[in-house]
Write a structure and sequence with these properties.
This is Integrase. This protein is mainly α. It is built from 16 helices and 3 strands.
Length: 362
Amino acid sequence: MSGDEPTAASDAELAAAKVLLARLGVTPEQLLAGSTVPSAAVVVAPPMPTIGEYIDRVIGAVTPGTRRLYETYWNRVRAHWGDRQLDEPTPLEITQLAQRVRGEAAVRRNARGGRSAAEHLISALRCLYRYAVTDGLIPEYRNPAIRVRKPRRLASTRHALTDASLAAINQVATTTGNDPHLDALLIRLHSETACRRGGALALRPADLDSQQCLIRLREKGETVRWQPVSPTLMDHLEHHRDARGEGDPDGPLLRYRNRRPITARRYDHLWTRIGKHLPWVATQQISTHWLRHTTLTWVERRFGYAVAHAYAGHQGRSDPSATATYVRASTYEVASALAALAGEPHPLAIGSAETPTPGWPG
């Protein structure tokens, strides 16, 4: 027998062929008759968009918070690769672009060699390609962004402030500037709640529960929580709402005297001014996030990790142990810690308030 002659198919090969024909919707009779494959069985791959086109699609699908975080980096990608097809860039090219962005990062006094810029660029591309995989444009194993390692994060230089430092910051904030009332309110809000800057900017009049002294915080990751505040702070927030608000319960709560909502620029101006009066603030690049460190450190030292974890609004996804699920602190325990911190009774607190912490914003 010549080597060019076909050999008989085995039973296993015949069975495999039948399975394949069934999945394609083709019968053996159609093959023998030369019939065409039914149109319903024809799978047409979606056209591959350019990177610029797909970025526009993803921007319309992500949450506002994700868009704010990544849009700057997507625009950088668009500027470099906007006309290329989505499946063209390789992991090596992404690494090269990340290094270029890292080298072009703005040099500030608190800069850390552009690591954050490179990390955010890679994260933005991972987000983009996750959608591409979900849409069936590329298979998971061909996702180039997931195979690029992010720069290793350096340890944070932030730490808790001393009582004397906190008192000095509060003194400058409340006695200088063109709106001491607003700045005092901001310092106390962040010192009591340890909320992030975005959480304060997202506050609305509808988020104030004056009866139970709670405010609703909406922060990164679309998290929402009710955070205890002291009766004094609640009074200040309500007075601010009544004096500067426009009557819209869903409008921004924190406003200037002209009723215009504040933005992140208010924080920038506040800490720049404090740094001019307190040079160590400018030298160490102290910001609002240091108040969060200060409050959470105080709570953890006196009330334990579980209460500090709840006070911070963390969701527990990064906890190394499943035990954290079972020892989660309640709002009542957070309220008790707040009452001790502020030295005021709280309607939800367990027990009585202690003496206010030295240096506490009053």
